[in-house]
Design goal:
Chain lengths: ~240, ~45
Amino acid sequence: MTARATESASQPPADAWRVLVPVAAVAMLAALWASLFYAPTERVMGDVQRIFYFHVPAALTMYVAYGLVFLASLMYLWKRQERWDELATAAAEVGTVFATIVLITGPIWGKPVWGTWWVWDGRLTSTLVLWLIFVAYLMLRSYGGDGQQVARYCAVLGIIGFVDLPIIHYSVTWWRTLHPGAVIMTEGSIGQGVESSMLITIVLGVVATFLLFALMLTLRLRLERLQRRAIAAHERVREQR
Amino acid sequence: MNSFSFLFAGLASVWIVAFVYLWRLHRQSARLEQKLAAIESRIDRHD
């Protein structure tokens, strides 16, 4: 661990976050403005439907984050390079933040529309299972120590967790669910039958959420590298005694 | 609760979760940087 941690610590922490803070903030404010004032009120659901412009982008970002965990975990198991483990750790935590946003905004939107906060249908249950898998992943990271064995276990868990993503995505097709199916990206077309102002707002929401994800990932990666540098420094102090 | 209250709660939750997480990352990094600087100067003195 010491040699690997030192090797990783020699990489300077990324400073891209300084640029990303204002960019992501402006994009998020623009998305908020568009969702409240630019997009028209949906005829059936009313104003509460505006949650859609953050709920769906958060779900897409969750897919991207956990996809990144999958790739980084595979790369770590193959190459055994610490940077892949760092990336998987950071992406798993940030992905769980977006999964939490999805699981909070969904029921808040569902209550006035469906008349209930929660139903155990395919989409909701598989999303909750994914969240629980990655909470377990983060607990293993926190309490399992910092050895290479834990990194390997986490890589395997990250790959297993990824298997749930296609189940979540196709759950509305495979099973009869209360959760609606795809609206924007249907088979063979993108945005067909959706009003242009709604489409622009959702695209803005996706861009803003991706920028927020990039900011969170950069900051989390920086923290991860600092933590590993601190572990390496502690070990050096112990060796000097 | 009317439609607006649910909308407000939904949008507020996104911003609160994002802000709290970013604040936590920033605070942890700042603390760790300070701690690391202290340890590294101790190592340099010893060397």
